[in-house]
Amino acid sequence: MNYLKTERKHILYSIILGFTGSLVGISIFGLSGYMISLSFFEPPVFIIILIIAVIKMFGMIKGAFKYFERLLSHDATFQMIGRLRLKYFKDTIQTDTSTHSVRFVQMLNQYFEQIEDYYIRIIYPYVTAVLVALLLTVLSVIVSVPLSIVMLIVSVCSLYILPKLFEKLLYHINQDALHHESSAYLKIYHHIHNYIDLFVTKNVHKSQQSVNEALEDIQNDRIKKSGVESLLLFFSGLVQAAGIIAVILLISGEEGLLVPMILLLLIGFFDIANPVILPRTNYKSVSGAVKDITAEKELPEKNAVQNRIVLKNVNYKYPGTKKDAVNNINLTVNQGEKHALIGSSGSGKTTILNQMTGITSSGVMPQHLDFYNASVRDNVTMFGRFNQADQTVDNALEYVEMEYLSPDEIIDYTGHLSGGERKRLHLVRMILEGKDWWLLDEPTASLNEQLREKVWDSIFMRKTVVVSTHDLTRLARFDYIHFVEEGHIVESGSYEELLQKRGRTYQALARSADNL
């Protein structure tokens, strides 16, 4: 809880207000029950009117407490989330964590939505419900000890035992749903952005079928979750019904006139407890998100010496998918070598490149490029992580023919940059980062010939590079070429060796020449 600073008082006040407002709400139910019991004695009309007036006044007081509780709790929560979001982002860009993927940003947003739920839907109302349950259990001793025991059993079953029993099951369902959503996202992205290649290779139907299967998995997860939640609410209803029956059986004789009041007090408690039963089952999921967000990041070693990248018998399967994206990949990249990964879209080139990214500290141009609603300087220096003078930034922008952007200009990422501009601006980022090892995914896509030449020149100036590309015009400049097909490297070698072999690379070069 050390990440809570100025919000602690607001959180405490919101819990006090929520607790007090809940007591007022239960009092409304109790007074209604008391009025029902009192009607048995045919009291004067002004007594009934007085009770009704008090109930109305309590309703207004409850509304006021609820308003200020929501005001304080939401203000505290959103202030905390804003600070955590900024801290997490600043910490992450100082590490080797890949923030380039749009999916990473999407998952990050889901994490913060879970943290919001953690406080607004779980912590505040759950603490309030527990406090109300304790108070009612203690007060019910005044009527009878058995009644107090019933109240305790109903409270423990509703607020702890049942949610705890379903918590693990729903946690696994939520994890499966996250995996399936990740898989669907990747498949949809691949289908949209590689549609032309899929059309040329006549794989559109196969890709569409894969997308449909992924979406069906998501729908099945939702159905499964809805079924489990309905089962939880059913058992909760049984516990509450059993509690009501027990109260009716326990209270008799002179205490019989208290039955309407006690029953309505119990129903009032259920009105507070029911909204927190389902959110309580998500405690494990959202507390995990809180831990991930608030955990201290390990900074990479700045002077680590790197001589090679080795992938040995690597298999990788995207979460939620049944088929390996790459299978039995063996690839070694030594310092000073330049490697090209070629093959059709969806063959596994990007996945292989991602496996290298995870085990090395390099300059990376991923498939999904990320930029932020910030200045050009902040975007290309990663908010000062790459300490470069403005003149150096200007020179790099001029080199990629983007001198029309000043370092202080704010980028509104949505629609501000074309695909080619994003490629060039990311190249500027890599140049300013100054690493000798570069891993790049389709670095010349969406660029004209003149700009492609500049990008290739920058790439070959680096000591060690691995490039996934559809541009086959510069293959002769690479030391090694690897042809990837259906998740396998089907052939590797130098440009001359592969031409002599007359295999997949030779055929791809021939098709490329025919198209030109």
- How is the CATH topology of the largest domain named? ABC transporter transmembrane region fold
Largest sheet strand order: 4-5-6-3-7-8
Low-confidence stretches: 299-305
**Main sheet summary:** 6 strands, mixed
The SSE string, one letter per element, is HHHHHHHHEEEHEHHHHEHEEEHH
Structural class: alpha/beta
Distance between the termini: 62 Å
Shape: elongated
Please name the CATH architecture of the largest domain.
Answer: Up-down Bundle
Radius of gyration: 32 Å
Total beta strands: 8
DSSP strand content = 5-15%
Number of helices: 16
CATH homologous superfamily designation of the largest domain: ABC transporter type 1, transmembrane domain
| CATH class category name of the largest domain | Mainly Alpha
Task: Give the topology.
Elements: H1 7-38, H2 45-93, H3 102-139, H4 145-193, H5 195-200, H6 204-250, H7 259-280, H8 283-294, E1 308-316, E2 326-334, E3 338-342, H9 349-357, E4 363-365, H10 376-380, H11 390-399, H12 413-416, H13 419-433, E5 437-441, H14 449-460, E6 464-468, E7 480-485, E8 488-493, H15 495-501, H16 504-515
Parallel strand pairs: 3-6, 3-7, 4-5, 5-6
Antiparallel strand pairs: 1-2, 7-8
How would you explain this protein's 3D organization?
- The chain has 516 residues and is an alpha/beta fold.
- It has two domains: 7-294, ABC transporter type 1, transmembrane domain (ABC transporter transmembrane region fold, Up-down Bundle), CATH 1.20.1560.10; 308-515, Rossmann fold.
- It has 16 helices and eight strands.
- Strands 4-5-6-3-7-8 form a six-stranded mixed β-sheet, with helices on both faces. It has a two-stranded antiparallel ribbon with strand order 1-2.
- Helix 2 packs antiparallel against helix 3 (102-139), helix 4 packs parallel to helix 7 and helix 6 (204-250) runs antiparallel to helix 7 (259-280).
- The longest helix is centred in the N-terminal third of the chain and has 49 residues, at 45-93.
- The chain is elongated, with a radius of gyration of 32 Å.
- The two termini are 62 Å apart.
- Residues 299-305 have low confidence and may be disordered.
